[in-house]
Amino acid sequence: MIVQLKSLFYKYRIWGWRTSQGLALFLANLVTFAHPESLYMLKNSLLRAAGIKIKGRIFIDRGFRCLFPENLSIEDGVAFGHDIHIWAFAPIQIGRHTKIAKDLLIISGSHDVESYENLSGQEVVIGPGCWIGARVTILGGVKIGKGCVIGACSLVKNDIPDWSVAVGVPARVIRERVPAEKNFTRFGVYSPEDI
Fold first, then answer.
1. Domain around 67
2. How many other C-beta atoms can be found within 10 angstroms of the C-beta atom of residue 90?
3. Cα(188)–Cα(190) distance, rounded to whole angstroms?
4. What are the pLDDT digits (tens) for 48-91?
5. For residue 69, is the peptide bond before it cis, meaning its omega torsion is within 30 degrees of 0?
6. Is 29 part of any domain?
7. Tell me, what CATH number does 182's domain have?
């Protein structure tokens, strides 16, 4: 009887936490404004309440969905487009000044094909100063270097080195890029030395 009560308590405690995270994410999606600053800061507060680690000013447009938001870490100056879906079964880090277009899907974490055990080392790291195109999918165990551009509709399943342009399914590096002296974001101007 005591074991059953403990199990029931644990089940509803987790359910309560997941419900509060979902409510915070739902409210954050209702409060999607770029200006005035106080309104997008309210959204950032709601996202923090859901468990996301936000370091500085970020902008996330409407339609944002996240499973296990406590595994997501976002640095200063990041801007997300519409309908971003993040399944954070393992940690995900997004570096500062990264711009992400519509319909990104990130799935960190995976299973062993033979035993269905969770695999370790399935974190996703997106370096600073990246530009991720529309409808990109990023799988677990991937590191995208700083200053990378990932073309629209690409599937990233392998690491991408710094200052690369990668496209395709699976994404392959097609060239290196030379960083611009000044980059413009909704939060101001930054230079390659800032990332």
1. 2-188
2. 20
3. 7
4. 988 999 998 888 888 899 999 999 999 998 999 999 999 999 99
5. no
6. yes
7. 2.160.10.10
